[in-house]
Amino acid sequence: MAVRLVDRVVLGDLTAVYPPELVDVVLSKTESREARVRLLPARLMVYFMLGKALFSPDPYREVLRKLAEPARRDGGWGGWRIPDKAAVFRARKNLGVAPLRELLAQVGPGVADESTPGAFWRGLRLMAIDGTTLEAADTAANEEALGRPAARTGGPSGYPLARVVALIESGTHVVTDAEVGHYRSGERGLAAELARSLRPGMLVLADRGLPGVHLWKQLAATGADLLWRVPKLWKLTPEQVLADGSWIATVHGGRGRSRQPVQDVRVRVVEYVLDDAGRAPDEHYRLATTLMDPTAAPGRELAALYAERWEAETTLAEWKTTQIGSGNVLTSKSPDLVEQEIYAHLAVHTALRSLMHTAALHHATPIDPDRLSFAAALRAARRSVTSLTGAFPP
């Protein structure tokens, strides 16, 4: 009976993004399939982790009840019963983080196409890199592996924190990749791991807290183009002024803490001041880019385009405050399960945003996905899990 129930457990409308066949492929790829069917087999545990993220902060057994309820109404649970918390914990440990990380990777470079408003600029897919932190359960294991902020007195303060750096598709808010690390690990080191998901045809935006010469060269080597706001530490002396007022400069890379050899990079610089009463009149914005041709990439357009980077902050804010819940702490008591929980949350967010993108484009009059409410989509997805008909708006 357990097999029948397990085969029927899905995730409501989110199953369209993560169907059982895809979950099975991911489990095989990450070598997470079990040799025999247990009370909590691997596929069910993947859906459980996604359900736990979807219904945050519901406890283990309540999430399992919601996932299994449609199957019970459809034909009964048979000999299956809702396992206790200890059994779920062991099954989470057996599953590991790899299937959830791989499931997120299945979205590929993004879900937008040329018809998606704000997703492309001159044929380049707009992406953004940004980071945030999440509070985790206050355990010795989490503190040792993740770290926590220091109080003014010099001792520890607050909860252990996991740092997350994400690669986000600007037009849809879909997270296509992410790296999780220690609170005190710099965003640059985590961002370097995202090179695995960059490719030609992308334009990657980032704020001034991220740029470093080594990171710039590493990400540019993927063939993706970069457009980053750069800090004042970057000494950018004009070497060649171009027709649109931008200029070519050489950034001299210092060794710093890196063991890599010192490297210089040539960039094109776009500098401007925003005419905004709410901003300091002398605040200059300086953007560095790999797009060297002012005809193919006019400086005025690049300056306007940089505002798309704020889509990344909006994405991480809705993920933390609306989906996970403002003030909620990740409940996992060990760092490996904290990472598993984070990737489950990211995968659910990506599934929701993918469905929102589809709904926006199939609207009677196609609309910008930004006009749809993430909170409303989250509520609809939750209803769809316990409904036999689904609840996501067409």
Instruction: Report the oligomer.
Output: single chain
Low-confidence stretches: none
Question: Radius of gyration, Cα only, in angstroms?
Answer: 23 Å
What letter string, H or E per element, gives the SSE order? HHHHHHEEHEEHEHEEEEEHHHH
Helix content: 25-40%
Largest sheet: 10 strands, mixed
How many strand units?
10
Mean pLDDT value = 88
What is the general shape?
A: globular
In terms of structural class, how would the helical and strand content be classed?
Answer: alpha+beta
Q: Can you describe this structure?
A:
By secondary structure, the chain is α+β, with helices and mostly antiparallel strands. The protein has helices at residues 2-8, 20-29, 42-54, 60-75, 85-95, 98-105, 140-146, 187-193, 213-220, 299-305, 310-325, 335-361, 374-386; strands at 120-121, 124-135, 161-169, 174-182, 202-206, 225-229, 240-241, 247-252, 264-273, 284-289. Strands 1, 2, 3, 4, 5, 6, 7, 8, 9 and 10 form a 10-stranded mixed sheet that branches. The protein starts with a helix and ends in an 8-residue tail after the last helix.
